[in-house]
Amino acid sequence: MSELTHLDSKGSAHMVNVGDKVETRRVAIASGKISMSPAALTAIRAGDAPKGDVLGTARIAGIMAAKRTGELIPLCHPLGLESVSVEFAFEDAAITATAAASLTGKTGVEMEAMVAVTTALLTIYDMGKAIDKGMVIGDVRLMEKRGGKSGTWKASAE
After folding, report:
1. Cα–Cα distances in Å, from 108 out to 33, 35, 138, 141, 157?
2. Residues with Cβ < 8 Å from 133, sequence gap 6 or more?
3. Which end of the chain is more exposed for a tag (fewer CB within 10 A), N or C?
4. Does 87 belong to an annotated binding site?
5. Is the pTM here over 0.85, yes or no?
6. pLDDT, tens digit, for every residue of 14-36?
7. Which residues does substrate bind (predicted)?
8. How far lies 19's CA from each of 15, 23, 77, 111, 148, in Å?
9. Cα–Cα distance between 146 and 65 in angstroms, integer?
10. What is the helix (H) or strand (E) element at residue 121, kind and residue range?
């Protein structure tokens, strides 16, 4: 099997050939946060935002985006995901989104989990900006990945 790199022998970008890799169960979990005003947080929590069910819409948007990651991120393989979930948790002045993506395949799903989280947070912003245009999205990161040649990886606690 050739070396797995996004650079060919001439140094040009190309899609990695994963044809010879072994299929394994692969799972990735990512998270991110959107900080906002108390008024925006209260409206979203109560389901009273001007644009309707913010978290329900954000959940669907994140799942849909994960399924299209191969179209959004250059050189990313299009994958037949087996499952994607997006969950939300309320904090004092923020909402944390956590996404999990999984499949049995030849390449990982880290990008799919990251795209799901980012899209869910952007959807919250879009649907809540009538209340708070100053919301801040941040802390998007991979929290855990399992499967593949490199095995399990977990983010260090901060």
Report:
1. 23, 29, 23, 15, 22
2. none
3. C
4. no
5. yes
6. 555 555 567 789 999 999 999 99
7. 75-77, 111-112
8. 11, 10, 11, 19, 14
9. 21
10. helix 110-128
103-158 pLDDT, tens per residue?
988 777 999 999 999 999 999 999 999 999 999 999 999 999 999 888 899 999 86
Residue 77 annotated as binding?
A: yes
Is 81 flagged in the annotation as binding? no
Residue 153 CB neighbour total at 10 angstroms: 14
Q: Which one of 53, 92, 126, 132 is the catalytic residue?
A: 126
Domain boundaries, the chain: 24-145
**112 annotated to bind ligand:** yes
Distance CA 115, CA 104 (A): 19
Query: CA-CA distance, 134 to 137, in Å (whole number)?
Result: 10
Instruction: Name the architecture of domain 24-145.
Output: 2-Layer Sandwich (3.30)
